[in-house]
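ARCHIVE CARD
Drawer: 12
Card no.: 0347
Subject: one protein chain, sequence and derived structure
Cross-reference: see card 0346
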Amino acid sequence: MNKSVVQPSSLQVNKVCIDASLALKWVLPEIYTDKAQELLRNWITKGYALIAPTLFIFEVTSALRNKVYRQIITQEEGFSALNQIRHGRIELITTAYDAFYLALAKEESCELWTADKNLVKILKRHKIRWAKWIGE
């Protein structure tokens, strides 16, 4: 069976998908922090869009909580790091986890209610009005 392989020339060069482990290196002194910060500066200079799945913010929060719990960083350092990442230029994209809820609500022709404000904000941009945020 001949499977299609994505060649580098077909990749979008104006965006970069990042994960929580990389973003944490931007705000905490860890191994490869210098390299991670260099990559970030380079991407910003080139005007790249940084994207991540909505799960990203939960992974960042969990990792920071674990570092505070294990006393690797202070609670203040954890809050500071979380705020820096949350206020960065990272666009959160709806992923498979969110899609299960969306698919069920669509299939059952009902509203989807969530406490995830970012998810609803993203969905409204795509004209999905039946997703409701608890704060509305």
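Annotation on reverse: Strands lie at 15-17, 49-53, 90-93, 112-114, 131-133. Residues 56 and 67 are 17 Å apart (CA to CA).
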